[in-house]
UniProtKB/TrEMBL annotation:
Species name: Coccomyxa viridis
Alphabetized SMART domains for the sequence: AAA
Keyword line: ATP-binding, Helicase, Hydrolase, Nucleotide-binding, Nucleus, Transcription, Transcription regulation
UniProt KW Lipid biosynthesis keyword: no
Protein name: RuvB-like helicase
Protein EC: 3.6.4.12
Domain AAA+ ATPase: 8-310
Top-level taxonomy: Eukaryota, Viridiplantae, Chlorophyta, core chlorophytes, Trebouxiophyceae
Length: 401
């Protein structure tokens, strides 16, 4: 539903005991959505900063989770690089140094070719994008921004597998209008407009650093940006890509934040919000009321609640096997089964944490694979939360209370 954009402005709550895979599920959602959809994770307690207001922290994360795909027709020079020569001149400040006075670049397309003489600042962009002769690039005419599209397919080799992306020689003229697609978040726009970059020369940068204070992202600025964004959306220039805001440990938020969330979810520019909590009925922070999951009922009423259940033995074993594989740890079959049992007895997280020490132990004993005996040994060495609590009650007279 998120991918079909049917979820914007709605919210989910993942509720379940610790270690039932809530955080893992949210990260899985992020992976599935891919790079083009913004995913912004945060933990409830992050709102308590001494410098920024709680609602400002929430607001920033909200805006990081809303994407905008902007399509612009820009005047560009596009083609395969046929020549790339920085022209040097003696430094004007004297001394032995040489500076680059301009860059000569040749671009070729299907219809023609062009020789350009460019400003030295563009040379830096060309180097940053690692442009070489034979690459296909475009340069935006009014900003000088350089984008490397790929390597021209005339240079394609017969390897089956290669890191390089080959692209055909661009059609049309070198100098033309081209539709350029850019993915940004509302927060990117806020930040870019709060600190205008100005020219790229050193003096402009120094000037910025010497400014008494960085301009803040104010509500007024955000409203201005929303206005422009809405206009772009109406005109079809930009497309809204509602992403996901993930707030883990949501019971850490207080009533002020919850009230703010209630309102923010109703805004026309809202992401999909996924909350997670492992709390039952507990106090709603900032009030003396209790609520299910520490969340006020009016907010709870808006949420689709998904209960996460403890993993079964087979599932735990499967997850442990995946973890071991990811970390490059080899385990004997019975060791895995033993660790799975431990996960049942203690917690999955504890069992996952035993993987590395067990690996070290088996290596020190000159073995490649972890055995069940290794698992038993690390289990004896390291206590889990339940066991340590039990010990403390048993030996209550030995500790300082
Ligand atoms: N489907 C899964 N695949 C791989 N690892 C998982 C999976 N589900 C849970 N885990 C692992 O189990 C542990 C507990 O899961 P987690 O998502 O942190 O629980 P919760 O957030 O509900 O407390 C973590 O170490 C996590 O990496
Ligand atoms: Mg978690």
């Amino acid at each position: 539903m998120i991918q079909l954009k049917k979820m914007a402005g709605r919210a989910l709550l993942l509720a379940g005991a610790p270690g039932t895979g809530k955080t893992a599920l949210a990260l899985g959602i992020a992976q599935e959505l891919g790079k083009k959809v913004p995913f912004c994770p945060m933990v409830g307690s992050e709102v308590y900063s001494s410098e920024v207001k709680k609602t400002a922290v929430l607001m920033e994360h909200f805006r990081r989770a809303i994407g905008l795909r902007i399509k612009e027709n820009k005047e560009v020079y596009e083609g395969e690089v046929t020549e790339l020569t920085p022209e040097e001149a003696p430094s004007q400040t004297g001394g032995y140094g040489k500076v680059i006075s301009h860059v000569a670049i040749g671009l070729k397309s299907v219809k023609g070719s062009k020789q350009l003489k460019l400003d030295p600042t563009i040379y830096d962009s060309l180097q940053k994008e690692r442009v070489n002769v034979g690459d296909v690039i475009y340069i935006e005419a009014n900003s000088g921004a350089v984008k490397r599209v790929g390597r021209c397919d005339a240079y394609a080799t017969e390897f089956d597998l290669e890191a390089e992306e080959y692209v055909p020689l661009p059609k049309g003229d070198v100098h033309k209008k081209k539709e350029i697609v850019q993915d940004v978040t509302l927060h990117d726009l806020d930040a870019a407009n709060a600190r205008p970059q100005g020219g790229q020369d050193i003096m402009a940068m120094v000037g910025q650093m010497m400014k008494p204070k960085k301009t803040e992202i104010t509500d007024k600025l955000r409203q201005e940006i929303n206005k422009v964004v809405n206009k772009y959306i109406d005109q079809g220039v930009a497309e809204l890509i509602p992403g996901v805001l993930f707030i883990d440990e949501v019971h850490m938020l207080d009533i002020e934040c919850f009230t703010y969330l209630n309102r923010a979810l109703e805004s026309s520019l809202a992401p999909i919000v996924v909350f997670a909590t492992n709390r039952g009925i507990c106090q709603i922070r900032g009030t003396d009321m209790a609520g299910p999951h520490g969340i006020p009922v009016d907010l709870l009423d808006r949420l689709v609640i998904i209960r996460t259940l403890p993993y079964t033995l087979e599932e735990s074993v499967q997850i442990l096997a995946i973890r071991a594989q990811v970390e490059g740890i080899a385990m004997k079959e019975d060791a895995l089964a033993r660790l799975g049992q431990l996960a049942e007895q203690t917690t999955l997280r504890h069992a996952v944490q035993l993987l590395t020490p067990a690996h070290v132990l088996s290596k020190n004993n000159g073995r490649e694979e972890i055995t069940a005996a290794d698992v038993d040994e690390v289990h004896a060495l390291f206590h889990d939360a339940k066991y340590t609590a039990q010990l403390l009650t048993e030996q209550v007279d030995k500790y300082i209370q």
